[in-house]
Design goal:
The chain has two domains: 188 residues, NAD(P)-binding Rossmann-like Domain (Rossmann fold); 212 residues, FAD/NAD(P)-binding domain. Helix 1 links the parallel strand 1 and strand 2. It contains 16 helices and 19 strands. It is globular, with a radius of gyration of 23 Å. 32% of the residues lie in helices and 21% in strands. With 448 residues, the protein is an alpha/beta fold. The strands form four sheets. Strands 16-17-18-4-1-2-3-19 form an eight-stranded mixed sheet. Bound molecules: NADP nicotinamide-adenine-dinucleotide phosphate (NAP). NADP nicotinamide-adenine-dinucleotide phosphate (NAP) binds next to helix 7 and strand 11. The site of NADP nicotinamide-adenine-dinucleotide phosphate has 26 residues, from helix 7 and strand 11.
């Protein structure tokens, strides 16, 4: 095959954009279409990173630079597997790299989990980040709330729930999110970790940030501040874990301060049921004990916490894509060094995966670069055996989408919407205010 590779990357989040960047640097004649089901690029950075994390959102600047490359074309508002089947796009590309990430909530199989007032963190994150596909209104009526999990998403959700709406006014949150948070009567947010402080998954900076709101007192409950041999070994081995534990111990030892809202951190409390008959009225947890190696077992001691809302932040899950292999247990696409394998373990020619759909929803944004490197190295090693595209003119796929009535958005369209959002923020001294309804996003992109 000649080196003017035509590649589609599905997913315009960091994983997909890093893959396109690495590919075009390694194969200068290659051209890449980055396809996304959303009308906008940037995936989880725009719709997963919390609005009060502007430093992480800054990664967009580097990704923007990549998308400015004329060899890379953004095609938004195209749901791969829904609007167009994978086999429909195959004739236009030599290879397809799936980078659709993970944006669903992992299930928690406990009684009462489906009661009104019991939510997945991913849905809440989508709401406060102004995702076009979730309802505009979020029921923030609880004064006491439980958050399950001890990862960075749990910390994000607990922090956004506990902070006052006006503290977020300097961010890009849409007006409906500000109004929703402003009406919230919350006084107490309880975060429950099923294991001990030596097993937390969150990172030191994100933990310390919980304590930065002048309106929120962080309370570490001493009952669960326990460590076994496994915990001590883990703390010795990982500096970031030691920093988290030091912070927790300092907070645990300090005198309480009088602040309007409290964020309680509980360790060794595993969720066993969401309580209530027609809506969430509480959370039952079972006290755990450490077994020596950092694992836990139940003690048979149960506590009922009076809360009117429960958020589970126990990890993300990828969505399967129609007609592509998917392992429902790991929630990933089976692969070998990024080469997608079918259910018999055979390679699917020309199909690759990268990012969270490949390795699962773990790791920080920068980690996806290493992943993309592996996948693109595999793709380039296969270049001579790839099933060559039949329609090689980049205009052909757009003609096809037009003919199929798929109203796609473009990079120029994103720049129009970007300018519009920045303009919305300007009179209020804000960097941007997001547009939320999908049709509005599309219309503004198209200059309608
Ligand atoms: P995570 O880091 O895997 O944390 C999941 C948490 O849920 C763990 O504490 C886990 O406890 C707990 N959990 C799992 N199953 C449970 C169950 N059945 N009952 C109770 N607890 C349960 O996942 P995440 O918080 O969704 O984050 C995903 C990735 O995104 C992470 O790499 C994270 O660092 C990253 N992220 C980063 C930022 C940031 O940099 N600011 C923000 C958000 C997310 P066990 O350890 O006991 O399993």
């Amino acid at each position: 095959m000649d080196r003017s590779l035509r590649v589609a990357v599905v997913g315009a989040g960091p994983a997909g954009i890093y893959a396109a960047d690495i590919l075009t640097k390694a194969a200068p004649a290659a051209t890449v279409d980055i396809i996304d089901r959303l009308p906008t690029p940037y995936g989880l950075i725009r719709y997963g990173v919390a609005p009060d994390h502007p430093r992480i959102k800054e990664i967009i600047t580097a990704l923007h630079h990549v998308l400015e490359d004329p060899r890379i074309r953004f095609i938004g508002n195209v749901d791969y597997g829904v609007d167009v089947k994978p086999e429909e796009l195959t004739p236009f590309y030599d290879a397809v790299v799936v980078a659709t990430g993970a944006d669903k909530d992992r299930e928690l199989d406990i009684p009462g989990i489906d009661l009104p007032g019991s939510h997945g963190a991913a849905d809440f994150v989508s709401w406060y980040d102004g995702h076009p596909d979730v309802p505009r209104e979020w029921p923030l009526t609880a004064s006491k709330v439980a958050v399950i999990g001890a990862g960075n998403v749990a910390v994000d959700v607990a922090r956004i729930l506990a902070k006052t709406a006006d503290e977020l006014l300097e961010t890009e949150i849409p007006d409906n999110v500000h109004r929703g948070l402003l009406a919230s009567p919350v006084t107490d947010v309880h975060l429950f970790s099923r294991r001990g402080p030596g097993q937390v998954k969150f990172t030191p900076m994100e933990l310390r940030e919980l304590d930065e709101s002048p309106n929120v007192e962080v309370v570490v409950h001493p009952e669960g501040m326990e460590f076994d041999e496994g915990s001590l070994a883990a703390i010795r081995a990982r500096r970031s874990l030691k920093m988290c534990v030091d912070t927790l111990q300092n907070w645990c030892a300090r005198d309480p301060r009088d602040r309007p809202r409290r964020l309680h951190l509980h360790f060794l409390q595993a969720p066993v049921a969401v309580l209530g008959s027609s809506r969430t009225e509480g959370l039952r947890t079972e006290t755990q004990e450490l077994t020596g190696d950092g694992s836990v077992r139940g003690t048979g001691v149960f506590t009922d916490w009076e809360v009117q809302a429960v958020y589970r932040a126990i990890g993300y899950l990828s969505r399967p894509i129609a007609d592509l292999p998917f392992d429902p247990v790991t929630g990933t696409i089976p692969h070998e060094a990024g080469r997608v394998l079918d259910l018999d373990g055979e390679r699917v020619p020309g199909l690759y995966a990268t990012g969270w759909i490949k390795r699962g929803p773990v790791g920080l944004i920068g980690h996806t670069k290493k992943d993309a490197n592996e996948t693109i190295t595999s793709l380039l090693a296969d270049v001579d055996t790839l099933p060559a595209a039949i329609h090689r003119d980049p205009a052909d796929v757009l003609t096809y989408l037009d003919r199929r009535g798929v109203g796609y958005t473009t990079w120029d369209g994103w720049k129009r919407l970007d300018d519009h959002e920045v303009g919305l923020g300007r009179p209020h001294g804000r960097k941007r205010v997001k547009v939320v309804p999908r049709q509005d996003m599309i219309d503004i992109s198209r200059g309608i």
